[in-house]
Design goal:
The complex is a heterodimer. By secondary structure, chain A is mostly helical. Chain A is globular and about 30 Å long. The N and C termini of chain A lie far apart (72 Å). Chain B is globular. Helices cover 5% and strands 37% of the residues of chain B. Chain B is mostly beta strands. In chain B, the strands form 10 sheets. Chain B has a 5-stranded mixed β-sheet with strand order 1-32-33-34-35, with no helix packed on it. Classes of the chains: A mainly alpha, B mainly beta. Chains A and B meet through helix 1 of A and helix 3, strand 22, strand 23, strand 25 and strand 28 of B.
Chain lengths: 168, 569
């Protein structure tokens, strides 16, 4: 009986030993991969650790002046409303200002750059540079962001990674 | 005739014996049918990975409440020595509880007494070469139940049907050879007599695939590649033959929309990380794909991060809910993505309803609905020899851990990690090497300079998208979440703490100090009118790969090894 117990204990112990798995490969640490054959690194990263290639865009909504938004609204009626609707509700072109609009989940720089490069459709880049800035100010205002003390510029619009739509 | 009657009687008696009650009301085991799975919400057990097809991970049990949770105590435990991550929720049908552990071991207990019923161990059969293509610890996330079987997917790409009444193998199929880039860690999902399971291997040159196997025979019914070949729709988003090793692995369990008969399955990063090797949108990586469960045909997709160089999988289980938004009840599906954004979609067509950041997120900047594509900061995509700094780190704002939905409050509660990283492109090897670890980017994980610590549990009101409460921690929050109709939220942390929160306010009501840390999925069940909470402790998984000077020391003293804890009042 005692022998039987001993055998059981030994079997259990052997089981534990056998069940101890191979050490987990720390494959997420470069240089310590245990993959079949490690990737060949022809040269290590050149830039020092932590070096930024470019700073991330500003996550703040840029400031604009109320009169810019007013001018922008006029320019919008004249150049955009035919396709996007007088209230930006969408027509031939996608909705821009309704709650389910297409641009509210786009960052401001992206909307601005798209507008400059592609709008008005068929006459891309036909407006004056300041008109694009004004329309951008109008769109920012239409999405619920209050005006500030500084004017919106092409640079501040291009540098903003903030969503055009106001976040809850 | 008499003999036929006798045989029938015998069969009936045998059936009774199988459903034996042990003198209590609840049978040990009851056959799992499609109808029971569809109605899993009202089942006293926990019949699948996140309890119900919608993936809510919510239990309607309400015996344990905010008023009495402080009296919770351990009813029984079960320990396993393997020193790796314990991620699976115990699955309970009747009085049978089935638990999987790292290295693909499976055991069944009496869910009331903790007495072991049987054990099935696949670990001895796993060839060592298979373990080389498992990125993030030798984990398993649990079983699917169907008929009288439990189904497990394994690290060496087997799908195994085991008789849930005795632990005997019914069938065993191999989906991919070991060591060539594939591994399976997820819990399968049983839908319409099919066992549905995705592969993993986005760091090893795999091509993501979802399999549907016949539950009775294990024969393949269909497969869906999450990376289309050249002439399929979406195939042009991959140059040359890069689709063959494009990753996009659907390695976590998906959810299933019963009303529209649609599988909703998340996918992982494109492979390799070095984006320059596969310029293009890279469909359907970092996406939610909607599939017909009977044919595997794609209905629609939503991609979060195109041509992703940051390892921002969208693989965590997308959760379905019906939520009033702006006065209209919307059928939504949501995910707290690795890329740091909460996405709320219309689950009937994949249209974006809203998105918002839930951690610092600088790589992904938005979504262009008109062109059906995510917007990223192109300047933060690392070129060869350049390093960029961005947030979150590749672990993600959340990794694969569940974000439970509380239907009473319309709150989604998510674990969170507050990290950033530097990432630098590396010269790729000249030739593809099957099974080799290949990201071709080097990284360094660091704290989010704006955060209190590395972790947080956060609750969002999905009707508004606003955060209602958050609980910040020094340690990253690396555990799935469970909400209950008792007004509670349960989740654990690496530093061995298992918490109960008031779901409404985020107030800590109860803390249990366990043998090891938590990286899995808590669950709740009821047997004979008594509610239980169960969870595996056992630190491991992706979290220890935090490594590196600033983070590693805080993990150094966490004891390893697995313990199943079952609590009740």
């Amino acid at each position: 009986m005692r022998n039987a117990l001993l055998v059981i204990v030994l079997v259990v112990l052997a089981g534990i030993v056998q069940h101890t798995p191979a050490p987990a490969p720390s494959v997420f640490l470069p240089g310590t991969t245990t993959a079949t054959s490690p990737p060949v690194l022809l040269h290590p990263p050149l830039a020092p650790k932590g070096t930024l290639v470019t700073p991330p865009p500003s996550m703040a909504v840029p400031s604009y002046l109320p009169q810019q938004a007013r001018q922008g609204q006029i320019a919008f009626y004249g150049n955009c409303a035919e396709c996007h609707g007088a209230a930006g509700e969408g027509n031939f072109g996608p909705a821009l200002i309704t709650a389910d609009g297409n641009v509210q989940w786009q960052p401001i720089y992206y909307v601005f750059s798209y507008m400059q490069q592609h709008m008005p459709a068929g006459n891309a880049n036909d407006l004056k540079p300041e008109q694009y800035v004004d329309i951008m100010a109008f769109l920012i205002q239409a999405h619920g962001h209050p005006p500030g003390k500084r004017a919106l510029t092409a640079a501040s619009a291009s540098g903003s990674g903030a969503l055009l739509g106001a976040q809850p | 005739m008499r003999r036929i009657v006798f045989t029938a009687l015998l069969a009936a008696l045998t059936a009774c014996a199988q459903n034996a009650t042990n003198g209590h009301g609840t049978p040990m085991w009851t056959t799992v049918t499609d109808e029971r799975l569809r109605n899993a919400a009202s089942d006293p057990g926990w019949l699948m990975y996140l309890r119900t097809y919608d993936g809510q991970g919510h239990s309607p049990l309400a015996q344990i409440t905010t008023a009495n949770v402080s009296k919770l105590h351990v009813v029984f435990t079960h320990s396993v020595s393997i020193p790796e991550g314990y991620e699976a929720p115990p699955i309970v049908n009747g009085r049978t509880m089935i638990v999987t552990t790292p290295m693909d071991r499976m055991y069944a207990l009496d869910a009331v007494t903790g007495k072991k019923l049987w054990e099935f161990d696949h670990d001895q059969d796993i060839p060592k070469v298979a373990l080389r293509t498992v990125c993030c610890d030798m984990v398993n996330r649990g079983v699917a139940l169907y008929g009288n079987n439990a189904y497990m997917a394994t690290l060496d790409n087997h799908v195994i049907a085991v008789d849930a009444r005795n632990g005997k193998v019914v069938w065993d199929k191999t989906m991919n050879p070991p060591g060539v880039g594939y591994a399976m860690t997820g819990a399968p999902l049983a839908v319409h007599g099919k066992i549905i399971i995705g592969d993993g291997g986005g760091e090893y040159g795999s091509r993501g695939v979802i399999f549907a196997l016949d539950a009775k025979t294990g024969n393949e019914v269909w497969r869906f590649y999450t990376v289309p070949s050249r002439n399929e729709p979406g195939g042009k988003t991959w140059p040359n033959d890069t689709y063959l090793h494009g990753g996009a692995d659907p390695w976590v369990t998906g959810s299933y929309d019963v009303q529209t008969n649609t599988l909703l399955w998340g996918t992982g990063n494109p492979s390799p990380w070095l984006w320059l090797q596969h310029p293009g949108q890279n469909l359907y990586s970092d996406s939610l794909v909607a599939l017909d469960p009977d044919t595997g045909k794609l209905k629609w997709y939503f991609q979060e991060t195109p041509n992703d160089p940051w390892d921002y999988d969208a693989a965590a289980t997308w959760v379905q809910a019906d939520v009033p938004i702006k006065g209209v009840t919307r059928k939504i599906v949501y995910e707290f993505s690795r890329n740091g954004w909460l996405y709320v979609l219309d689950r009937t067509n994949g249209d974006l309803i809203y998105m918002r950041r839930y951690v610092t997120a600088t790589s992904v900047l938005g979504y262009d609905r008109a062109h059906h594509i995510g917007i990223v900061d192109e300047a933060l995509k690392p070129r060869i020899g350049q390093a960029i700094f961005t947030c979150p780190a590749f672990f993600g704002g959340n990794n694969w851990w569940s974000f439970t939905y509380d239907p009473q409050l319309h709150y989604a509660i998510t674990p969170g990690m507050r990290t950033c990283m530097t990432l630098a492109g590396q010269q790729p090897p000249k030739a593809f090497n099957a099974g080799a670890f290949q990201t071709n980017e080097a990284f360094k994980v660091m704290p989010d300079p704006k955060a209190y610590g590395f972790g947080a549990l956060q609750a969002y009101d999905l009707t508004t998208g606003k955060r209602v409460w958050h609980y910040e921690t020094k340690m990253p929050w690396t555990d799935g979440t469970l909400s209950t109709d008792g007004g509670l939220v349960f989740s654990g942390t690496p530093d061995q703490k298992f918490y109960a929160f008031d779901a409404k306010t985020g107030k800590v009501l109860w803390v249990f100090h366990a043998r090891s840390g938590f990286v899995g999925q808590p669950m709740s069940y009821e047997v004979d009118g008594k509610q239980y909470i169960a969870v595996q402790s056992g630190y491991g998984g992706v979290a220890p790969f935090w490594g590196q000077a600033k983070v590693a020391p805080m993990f150094k003293h966490i004891p390893l090894g697995g313990t199943l804890y079952v609590f009740s009042l």
